[in-house]
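Holo prediction. Input below; ligand is cytidine-5'-monophosphate.
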Amino acid sequence: AGRCVVAVDGPSGSGKSTVSRRLAVSLDARYLDTGAMYRALTWAVLRSGVDLTDAESVAKVAGEVDLRIGTDPRGYGVTADGVTIDKEIRGPEVTGAVSAVAAVPAVRAMLVTRQQEMIANAGRIVVEGRDIGSVVAPDADLKVFLTASEVARAQRRSAEDAADVAVTAADLARRDKLDSTRKVNPLQQAPDAVVLDTTELGIDEVVARLHDLLTERG
Ligand code: C5P
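Structure of the complex:
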């Protein structure tokens, strides 16, 4: 099969990860979780102890990390300097700091380049994030922007993390605000993206709909 790049963007809890992984499995494609890359660098920055508001130091630490991430949609590993950090990158410390690290322009430039190389090497790949359709893969074969009501997003995330809904809702709102208002590559809907509101849709329905869209486009 030929090249095919699917870009999936949207806020936290919109169903991006589940949908993207399932779609990649059914397309027999690779899968890239760009949020995990920002989270991994954030873990390294926290470990280094540098001040999160010091963009220059954050960028320096980020630039020195040996970050590796797999692209198997059935389960991929993330390592930083050889340390497996799949669990750590989902923890509250990283979640609390990731938007600040992701707002540093030099960090984004570095990761966007890395992501573009991985996409070029993959051939068929589903890529999820915040700026994939707008910045990382503007010529993707299909761009999807997933949304869902704030309540639905908080419920999904708190179920995944076994966390309190109200705490999760507050965290999502805080991250959405930071991610949407940062100066460089904010969370953005590409003009040619297909917008899907997943509030009332099951995962299967969303995946099926994306499958149809890809088939229609040949
Ligand atoms: O998708 P996930 O919630 O794991 O992303 C974690 C954080 O990484 C987001 O809140 C955002 O700050 C950042 N991110 C980003 N650009 C991407 C993917 C994630 O800025 N393409």
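The beta strands are 4-9, 30-33, 67-69, 78-80, 83-84, 124-129, 142-147, 194-197. That is the main takeaway for now.
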